[in-house]
Write a structure and sequence with these properties.
Blueprint lengths: L2 H15 L3 H5 L4 E6 L2 E7 L13 H17 L8 E9 L9 E11 L3 E9 L5 E10 L11 E2 L6 E3 L5
Length: 165
């Protein structure tokens, strides 16, 4: 398992351990792959994820855009992932029903000293785009967190900081 994947899962565990929104809304989120700047996920859709029409609620897509965008920042070695300044989503087609699996790829499109920009593409099991979100985060203060690490370019190794399982 790559160092970037281990670290990103560690940050996700801290979200769940906080017992806040993420733990309530999607505790069964799976992180499959993480390289610096890109993370792949899946989520089995539960009845609580649906709108009254019986398909994935748009609020779930926006919540996932927030969380997955944060984990894209984490995949670059940021333990604290900043705070949201802007977020949005476009819905292309219904994203699924109970029992379906929603897939997502979160990408860190740019990160400077103060702001990080992410995009999350959501697909159904057939690979069709169902929605996409964007997320801007203020990362100015989080960039100096003592739990941050630096990865090798491919994300396989931690080259600075603590590599904790």
């Amino acid at each position: 398992m790559s160092a970037s994947l281990r670290f990103t899962r560690r940050v996700w565990k801290s979200f769940i351990d906080n017992k806040g929104h993420d733990a309530q809304c999607f505790p069964n989120l799976n992180i499959h792959r993480a390289v610096p700047g890109t993370v792949d996920f899946s989520l089995k859709i539960e009845p609580s994820n649906l709108n009254r029409v019986g398909t994935v609620h748009g609020g779930l897509i926006l919540s996932l855009t927030d969380t997955l965008g944060s984990l894209a920042v984490a995949s670059k070695g940021h333990y604290m992932t900043g705070v949201s300044t802007d977020i949005g989503a476009s819905f292309v087609r219904p994203a699924g029903r109970t029992g379906d699996t929603l897939h997502a790829r979160a990408t860190l499109t740019a990160m400077g000293k103060s702001l990080a920009y992410t995009r999350v593409d959501f697909t159904n099991p057939g690979g069709d785009l169902v929605a996409y979100g964007y997320h801007t985060k203020y990362v100015g203060k989080s960039s100096s967190d003592p739990n941050n690490v630096k990865f090798s370019e491919d994300g396989e190794q931690v080259i600075e900081g603590n590599d904790v399982d």
